[in-house]
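Good day; I would like, with your permission, to put a structural problem before you. A protein sequence and the structure tokens that stand for its backbone fold form the material at issue. Thank you for your consideration; the sequence and its tokens are set out here:
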Amino acid sequence: MRAFREAVEAGDMDAVEALLAEDVVFTSPVVFKPYPGKAITAAILRAVSTVFQDFRYDRELAGNDGRDHALVFTARVGGRELTGCDFIRLNEDGLISELMVMVRPLSGAQALAAEMGARFDQIVKEAEARSASAS
């Protein structure tokens, strides 16, 4: 998933958003329920790009059919180091239809949950504004 990786690494969140299918489903590493839709997924990714420090992808894995990808990353959140993986599934049009993130260790996940939780009201407002302007 070269385009996604390059956009994330460049901090180009508009390019990241352009790779998302309208019906993408984002699964968070710290919240049980998935988040369906491009607007909320893009807003979450924009916020997390400000929370992660020293973010870098270390490895990329691909499934046999070319639709499944895993991008292993490292980052810091506050003083906590974490390792994570973006699991990506593409639809028939080559857009991201599923994005599931997992992180470890627990202390890193807790730091991420706290930082994202503090921003979540703003994330929801951004997603609502994007949905309204897209209609």
